[in-house]
Amino acid sequence: MNAGLTDTLVSIRNLTKTYVQRRAFSGTRFTIEALRQTSLDVRRASRLALVGESGAGKSTLARCLALLEKPSGGEIWMGGANLLALSRKELFSVRRGIQLIFQDPASALNPGITAAEIIEEPLIIQRQGSPGERRRRALQLMDQVGLPSVAAEKRPLDFSGGQRQRLAIARALALRPKLLILDEALSNLDLATRDSIISLLDALQAEHGLTYLHVLHDLRLALELADEVAVMFEGQIVERAAASRLSACPEHPYTCSLLHALYSLQSARESAQAEPLVPAEVLP
């Protein structure tokens, strides 16, 4: 295992994931290779973006890394251990180190309990602290993510979309994780709300030394958010580079096509903005 480098938090080696499905009418089985011998290192306190089109395997990789799905093969190394070789009991404490934030917090958060209870829930599952300590931790986290303590008794649907995402971040931070995986967590937000969440993530990383893995289909946003970008295509990482280098000197044809589409869209927008308005004809 060559993931012993001091700056490597997680090392994924030759990960595979195969799904078996049935055809709608014939009922015959067929397999889908969502991940094909995928390898990826995630450095400590870094911001890595995983980019690719729908079906590239990004979310599958994220769910396998968060231990929500079991890969068909390969290894995930963290803290000197292959997580996929650990027993269920051993994984219980390991899970707290990796947390996943989903695209839609409304569907990821329990609508029937309060904001404070949502944050306390992982602490209860992990049997950490007394009820009073858990409540204090919940209120502290709400303050850190910019939610007022008076909102502690509100339920998720009482919040705006941006506030729900802040609540999801607070819940993910409850167990003091090392790695946060954000699976399209900024995609459903308007521009102003997204910028405020990005500022929040920057502040939390500076304070807690967090590592971020952003899972995105938007290359422009990936280049803005990340130190490094890994490009995924058909279940494999085809290119990885610093964001500035990837933007200037892409190597893989798929990366080139993504950049070409991005620059073409930007050019079209700039042309539309620069085009002078033609006054309407004045009727007699």
Could you characterize the architecture of this molecule?
With 284 residues, the chain is of the alpha/beta class. It has a domain at 8-112 and 178-261: P-loop containing nucleotide triphosphate hydrolases (Rossmann fold). The chain is 39% helix and 25% strand. It has helices spanning 58-65, 88-94, 105-108, 115-125, 131-144, 161-173, 191-208, 219-225, 243-248, 253-274, and strands spanning 8-22, 29-43, 47-51, 73-78, 81-82, 98-101, 179-183, 211-216, 228-233, 236-242. The strands form two sheets. The chain has a six-stranded mixed sheet with strand order 6-7-8-3-9-10, sandwiched between helices. A four-stranded antiparallel sheet has the order 2-1-4-5, with helices on one face. A hairpin with a 2-residue loop joins β9 (228-233) and β10 (236-242). It is globular. The model is unreliable at 1-5 (pLDDT under 50).
What's the count of strands?
A: 10
Runs in which pLDDT lies below 50 for 5 or more consecutive residues are 1-5
Report the β-strand fraction as a percent range: 25-35%
* Name of the CATH architecture of the domain at 8-112 and 178-261: 3-Layer(aba) Sandwich
Spatial arrangement of strands, main beta sheet: 6-7-8-3-9-10
CATH H level of the domain at 8-112 and 178-261: which superfamily?
Answer: P-loop containing nucleotide triphosphate hydrolases
Q: What is the radius of gyration computed over CA atoms, rounded to a whole number of angstroms?
A: 21 Å
CATH class of the domain at 8-112 and 178-261: Alpha Beta
Structural class: alpha/beta
Alpha-carbon distance between the two ends = 82 Å
Count of DSSP helices?
10
Q: Could you name the CATH topology of the domain at 8-112 and 178-261? A: Rossmann fold
> Mean pLDDT across all residues, rounded?
91
> What is the 3D shape?
globular
The succession of helices and strands, N to C, reads EEEHEEHEHHHHEHEHEEHH
Biggest sheet layout: 6 strands, mixed
The share of residues in helices is: 25-40%
